[in-house]
């Protein structure tokens, strides 16, 4: 910059430099002007520097204020959110617990009891329906087998089974029914119906099995029925042999 100023000064005073004799104090004037020029430029630089510093300071204050306010708002907002969320979480805890009245509990337990007895009731219905099916031997046999799976027979079922044993037209159904009733031959009603069968049953296989079931009975009526069967000419020899064996065994244990 100083070089340019010196060059311009020389061009402006070219005539003076071309004269052989230089004006008095020429170099001093040049250096003085250069010094004034330099001082003027330094003042401008300082003034510009101070101006930029003031602007920068103002900007820093503005930015700092903005950041401070933003930070305060940011800290405050989560607090309010936490409070609101806390209220939302605690509200269900303050609700009263639902109380189940005893009536409701009984209403819930009753179906359970019904379900417990439901299979037995349904099974009895199926047995009665099968035994009443006069058109299907298979249905009656299946019903008899279901009855045989029971550990206990009520009076109604005992009556129906004894009726089937004495009246069903199919020998296989009567034989299967005899097998079921033999498990309950100690029952007074069942024993009476089986004893009546000694004079009603005509199938040799059924007669043979019936004698085996009643052969140990000490009932006088049963003994009379067995003697009558042995004296009957239509009774097969194999059945008579079984009757003689039963009567002989009873005499030995009397």
TrEMBL record:
Keywords: Membrane, Transmembrane, Transmembrane helix. It holds the Pfam family HEAT_2. The keyword Transmembrane helix applies. The chain crosses the membrane at residues 48-69. Gene3D superfamilies: Leucine-rich Repeat Variant. It comes from the Bacteria. The keyword Cell wall biogenesis/degradation does not apply. Coiled coil: none annotated. This is HEAT repeat domain-containing protein. InterPro entries: ARM-like (IPR011989), ARM-type_fold (IPR016024). The lineage of its organism: Bacteria, Pseudomonadati, Bacteroidota, Sphingobacteriia, Sphingobacteriales.
């Amino acid at each position: 910059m100083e070089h340019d100023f010196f060059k311009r000064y020389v061009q402006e005073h070219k005539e003076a430099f071309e004269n052989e004799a230089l004006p008095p104090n020429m170099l001093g004037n040049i250096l003085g002007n250069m010094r004034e020029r330099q001082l003027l430029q330094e003042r401008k630089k300082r003034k510009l520097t101070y101006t930029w510093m003031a602007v920068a300071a103002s900007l820093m204050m503005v930015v700092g204020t903005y950041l401070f306010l933003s930070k305060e708002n940011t800290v405050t907002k989560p607090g309010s959110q936490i409070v609101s969320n806390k209220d939302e979480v605690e509200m269900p805890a303050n609700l009263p617990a639902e109380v189940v009245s005893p009536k409701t509990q009984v209403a819930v337990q009753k179906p359970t009891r019904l379900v417990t007895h439901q299979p037995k009731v349904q099974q009895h219905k199926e047995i009665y329906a099968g035994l009443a099916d006069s058109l299907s031997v298979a249905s009656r046999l299946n019903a008899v087998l279901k009855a045989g799976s029971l550990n206990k027979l009520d009076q109604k079922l005992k009556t129906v089974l004894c009726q089937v044993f004495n009246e069903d037209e199919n020998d296989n159904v009567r034989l299967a029914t005899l097998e079921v009733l033999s498990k309950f031959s100690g029952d007074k009603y069942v024993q009476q119906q089986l004893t009546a069968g000694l004079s009603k049953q005509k199938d040799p296989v059924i007669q043979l099995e019936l004698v085996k079931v009643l052969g140990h009975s000490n009932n006088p009526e049963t003994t009379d029925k067995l003697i009558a069967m042995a004296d009957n000419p239509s009774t097969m020899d194999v059945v008579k042999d079984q009757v003689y064996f039963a009567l002989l065994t009873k005499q030995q244990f009397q």
